[in-house]
Design goal:
The protein has about 160 residues and is α+β, with helices and mostly antiparallel strands. It has one domain. Strands 8-7-6-3-5-4-1-2-9 form a nine-stranded antiparallel beta sheet. It is globular. The termini are far apart.
Length: about 160
C-alpha cells in the first residue's frame, strides 16, 4: 500500500454520531494499553464502510450517492443498525469529505466482504477500542493486510 495514502487514511477525521453529539476521532493517536478512557462508542465493535469512489476512481456525486444508498439498504436488510458519519481531511484547508456508514456490531469477515463488493481500497474495523485499516481491494498485492491504529479524539 502506498505510504502517503496509508498516512492519509490514519489521519482522516471521522465525525460519528453519539447520544451526546458528534464525536470527532482519527486513528493516528498514541498507543495506549488501557482504552477505557475513550468515549464509549470507540470501545464497541463496529465497521466504517463507504461505497464512494471505488478503487480511488472519482465518480460523479450522483453515482456515488446512489451507491451509498444501495450499501445502506443492503446493510439494513442484513439487520444491522447503521448511522451516517463522514470522513474528512485532517488539514483545515482540505476539501475532501466522504460519507461513511457506522455499522454497529458487524462481524469482521462480513465487513471485509462489503469492502470487496463495493471495490474499496480499505475498510475500517474496530473492536475493543482498537481500530484497524484493512486492505480489501482484490487487485492489491497486500489484500487482507491489516494496519493497526490508535484512536485520537479530536475537538
Amino acid at each position: 500500500m502506498d505510504q502517503a495514502l496509508l498516512r492519509s487514511y490514519f489521519a482522516t477525521i471521522y465525525e460519528l454520531p453519539t447520544a451526546s453529539g458528534v464525536l470527532r476521532a482519527s486513528m493516528d493517536g498514541e498507543n495506549v494499553a488501557d482504552t477505557s478512557g475513550l468515549p464509549e462508542l470507540l470501545n464497541r465493535r463496529f465497521a466504517l464502510l463507504t461505497s464512494y469512489n471505488p478503487r480511488s476512481m472519482l465518480l460523479p456525486r450522483r453515482v456515488n450517492d446512489q451507491r451509498q444508498v444501495v450499501l445502506r439498504d443492503l446493510l439494513i436488510l442484513g439487520c444491522y443498525r447503521v448511522e451516517p458519519g463522514v470522513g474528512t481531511e485532517a488539514e483545515p484547508e482540505g476539501v475532501w469529505r466522504e460519507p461513511v456508514w457506522l455499522v454497529h456490531g458487524m462481524d469482521r469477515d462480513e465487513a471485509l466482504a462489503f469492502g470487496r463488493v463495493f471495490r474499496q481500497n480499505t475498510i475500517v474495523y474496530v473492536q475493543n477500542g482498537r481500530p484497524e485499516i484493512i486492505v480489501t481491494d482484490p487487485t492489491a498485492d497486500d489484500v487482507g493486510r491489516t494496519f493497526h491504529g490508535n484512536w485520537r479524539v479530536r475537538t
